[in-house]
Design brief:
Its EC number is 3.2.2.27. About 35% of the residues lie in helices and about 10% in strands. It has helices spanning about 5-15, 20-35, 45-50, 90-100, 110-115, 140-155, 165-170, 200-210, and strands spanning about 40, 60-65, 120-125, 130, 160-165, 180-185. Strands 3-2-5-6 form a four-stranded parallel β-sheet. It is globular, with a radius of gyration of 17 Å.
């Protein structure tokens, strides 16, 4: 199956695109777009892949579902476009960065500046029906994004993986911790951030690790 995605990713993921599960997933997603309002707009499903080629990735941040409210999600996990109110989880991410690194808290929730530096924030499910969180779970996206994680783990080295919350922590088994730094803590959601996300120092630890490996650190 031909999928429009940045070439370095296409080369590595073509074997997934050719599998029966992906064909079924595409059929499901296309029908959803015809019948319902689905996020993100179709051309943005692979936005984070298009904006961050395979060899450029330095830090992987794993999420679960896209934001379900129209106007929020455009293909980058935790990020929202300029001018959109910053969601609670991202507010807490910015707070942890401020507290641990002294960076000013941004007025925009757009994380494209991170992506441009090699941060790869990816949800495990890449589409959602508007206002229906989790409506596209267990349709095949998880199989695809697990394959992405395994590709990054197997074919790259010295990456930082940030796994926040129980769902993301389940992905730990896909990652070779001998080749990469794996950081885990609770989810930055307002419901859980006080129980370990604040003070986790993940952004400091990521930069320390990258610097130690001779890789340019991230300007968070």
């Amino acid at each position: 199956m031909n999928v429009r995605i940045e070439e370095s990713w296409r080369l590595r993921l073509q074997e997934e695109f050719d599998k029966p599960y992906f064909e079924k997933l595409v059929t499901f997603v296309r029908n959803e777009y015809k019948q319902s309002q689905v996020l993100p707009p179709g051309h943005q499903i692979f936005h984070v892949f298009d904006a961050c080629p395979f060899e450029k990735v330095k830090v992987v941040i794993l999420g679960q579902d896209p934001y379900p409210n129209p106007g929020q999600y455009y293909g980058v996990c935790f990020s929202v476009p300029d001018g959109v109110a910053i969601p609670g989880s991202l507010v807490n991410i910015f707070k942890e960065i401020h507290d641990s690194l002294g960076k000013p808290i941004p007025t925009s929730g757009n994380l494209d500046r991170w992506v441009a530096q090699g941060v790869f924030p990816m949800n495990s499910v890449l589409t959602v029906r508007a206002h229906e969180t989790g409506s596209h779970r267990n349709m095949g996206w998880e199989t695809f994004t697990d394959a992405v994680i395994k590709k990054l783990s197997n074919e790259r080295k010295n990456l930082v993986f940030m796994l926040w919350g129980n769902y993301a922590k389940e992905k730990r088994s896909l990652i070779d911790a001998n080749k990469h730094l794996v950081l885990t803590t609770v989810h930055p959601s307002p419901r859980s951030a006080d129980h370990g996300f604040f003070g986790c120092k993940h952004f400091c630890k990521a930069n320390d690790y990258l610097r130690d490996k001779g890789i340019k650190e991230i300007d968070w």
